[in-house]
Amino acid sequence: MIGKTSIGTSFGGCVRYQFEGHKHSQEQKQAEVLEAVGVRMSSASSMTADFNRGRLLNPDLGRAVWHTSVSFNPDDAAKLTNEKMLAVAQDYVQGMGLDQTQYVIIRHHDQPHPHFHLIANRVDNQGQTISDSHNYARSQALLKELSIRHELTPVAERRAHKQRPDQLQGADRSRHQIRQTLEQVLASCSSGQAFAERVQAQGITYQVRQNETGKAVGVSFAKDGHTFKGCDIARQYSYGGIMKQLEANYRQQQAAQAQKRAAHAVKPVEPVTPVVRAQTSPEGPKKAPELSEVERKWQADYQQQVQRVRLLNEQIRATNAWIEQAAQTLAQNPTLKTAQALKQACPDYGLRQVLEGQIKAGESYQFQVEWRAEQRQTLSRQAGSWFGLSSEAKEAKAKLAYLDDPKGSGLDYQMQEKHYSFWIHARQETKAKPSFGFQTSAYQKQEHALVSLSQFAQQRETAQQQEQAQQQRLNQYQNRGPRLGGRGMS
C-alpha cells in the first residue's frame, strides 16, 4: 500500500474532485462512498456544506482539509471488496487520530489499481485542532502495519536478508531469524510433524490460514511479537512451497531407503549366533503382502496425500484447541479489551469477523456512554452559571433537554442548524450494552479422514480413466469430417 497526504484549505475543491475530477476535465472518477461520518453523502454540495459547518467550531484554522489517498497493489484487487477496503480505511482513520471528527471514505474505480480517498476535517467534534505533524512518517508506519494485519502486499522496503544480521532491529531481525530457521529445517525434514516440532523449538509459531471451505490457502510465522506471511519472508516459504519441499524430502528419503534395502538384499546375511538360527522359521521371514498393480502405480501420490492430510489435521487440532480456550477466556472475562486481544491472535477467518463486529459495537457503546457523561457534566455546570439566566446557561439547558428526550424537546431543527457537532452524537440514543462471546461448535472444524491406499488408488484410477475417455471423445469429435446434406446441398 502507498499513501499520499495533503493538507488544504478548500473542502469544496477537494470534495468536487472526488466526484467530478479536475476542473474542466472529462474524466469519470466512478466514485463510490463507502462511509460518511458527520456529513451527508447525497451530493457533493451537501457534503461540502456539512464540512464547512463543522469547521466553524474553530474558524481560526485555515488549513482544515485533510486529504489522503491510499493505493493498493494490483495483485490484491481480487480480495479488496468494498467491505475489506472499508475495514482497512477505518483502521487507518483510527490509527491517524481522525476518528473524532467528520470524515468520508470514497472509493474510485477509474484506475487498474484499487484505491480510496479519505477527506477529514482537522477541526474535531470538540472544536480542537487535529495535528498534522509528521503525518508522512506516521502514515507510512501505519500502512506497513495494516498490510500485515489485513494480509495485503506490504509497502516496498529494503530486503532484510540483504543486510548485515547484526544491524537488523525489530521486525527485520525477527524476519531474518525466521528465514534462517526455515532454511535449516526444510533442508532435512520430510514430515509436517517434524517440521512443526523443529520450528517451534526455535521459538517460532506458525499458523496455516484456511478459507471458508477449510482449504489451506497460506501460512504465517511469528517471532518476538512480529508476524509475517510465508511468501513475505521468501517465495519458497509460502504454504505451497513448504509442502513441495517436504514432499521432495520425503521422496528422496524413500528412494535412499529403497536403495539401502536393495543393497542388503543382494548381500547374504550370516546368522550372528546359533540362537538366532534356532529361532528362525524354516520357511524364512514372512513377506509383506504384495501390492496390486494399481496400488503400486499410485503409491507415491498416496504418500504425498498422507503428508498433506496429517499437516492439515495438526493445524485443525491446534485451531480447535485455541477456539475452545478463547471461548472460555471470553466467558470468564467478557470485556472489550479481552475481545480485542483475542481478535489479534485469532486463527479462524469467520471467528475474526464475529469478534470484529462485537468489538465495533463495544467501542461504539463505550464512546456514547463516555461522551454523554462528559456532556451532562459540562452542561450541568454551564446551566447553573449566572443563576441560569445567561444565554450560555439557557443554551446548556436546551441541550440537556435534548439529551433527555430528543424527540420531545422540539429542538431537533435548532440543533442541526446551530450546534451541528453536538447534534451529530446526541441524535444517536445510547444502545443496549453489547455482549461478548461465541459458541465453539460454530467455528471448530472436523479433521480430514484418511482413506486407505487401495481406496485412494481406485479413486485416482477411476478419475484418470474418465478423463482419458472424455479426451478420446473430444478427439473423435475434432477429427470428424464435414457432414453431408447440409443446408443448401441437394
From TrEMBL:
Coiled coil: none annotated. Transmembrane segments: none annotated. Residues 461-480 have a biased composition (Low complexity). Residues 154-175, 461-490 are annotated as: Disordered. Pfam families: Relaxase. Residues 27-152 form the MobA/VirD2-like nuclease domain. InterPro entries: Endonuclease_MobA/VirD2. This is Relaxase/mobilization nuclease domain-containing protein. It comes from Spirosoma agri.
